[in-house]
């Protein structure tokens, strides 16, 4: 298992997250990647490399190029406007409003945001690029004939849509990696999202495409972020009809229920004919995660890896969520152990 990790994740070190009516220190913080890196090394995954110097060519195939341009300039525009704090969207295009992009930076950031929790800060763009490069380097590792890679992506990516950031995500690392695998010649690819939260960005990117199957297991959006997407009746459109599958689950969901959904998703990925799986791995399904409500145990993460490996496909693991508790590291390492078992 090759691990791809960049120190540049530390450039994303926001001080504010709008959470339950207060500006708090973000859950998605640099210590997460440090703890995960330490735990996977400790578990024997010592083949750790830095990402290759990829540009934005692949990202431009899954994101709106104007959105990527926005990510590159938003911080300097915010500073030039004279604002002192971190850049936070507070006004959004919603029902019955124009989708024209405002020139005003407050309007522009609202246009490109799907939530106000995620502050944009100095260094966030550079960190997001490094995170994307980890995923791309992992995709290249699979293309070179290897069965597994772990892209230790930070910031995460699965809430980043075609032209939207939020939920701690800016560039959809898993989506970019899936595109890279397609460009390398894989006719069909699957993105399997096991993070506690629905992969709304990934779904958005591939919803009308028949070449990339997307499946997400998550807290029911009636109760959980991202609230507005992730229901079981969202099955894809046009060429993508039948290539999206959602498994919303209730509070307190344990392994027995969760793993039945996993088995169904894996069966459909096989039936679809995917040649590789990009695994959006969040360990916020853990029973003591501070912002989620499933009941997976540390041992369940080993089983998760084993079941996914049993599908017999190459797997690129991309890091998504998992917060607060020291178990995030061991839980990630357990998935990797299960994959290689
Ligand atoms: C509100 C918290 C919003 C939850 C964001 C979820 C991020 C995540 N302050 N996505 O997978 O873990
Ligand atoms: Zn999550």
UniProtKB/TrEMBL annotation:
Pfam families: Hist_deacetyl. Keywords: Hydrolase, Metal-binding, Zinc. Residues 28-338 form the Histone deacetylase domain. Its cofactor is Zn(2+). Belongs to the histone deacetylase family. PANTHER family: HISTONE DEACETYLASE 8, HISTONE DEACETYLASE HDAC1-RELATED. This is Acetoin utilization deacetylase AcuC-like enzyme. It comes from Rhizobium miluonense. The lineage of its organism: Bacteria, Pseudomonadati, Pseudomonadota, Alphaproteobacteria, Hyphomicrobiales.
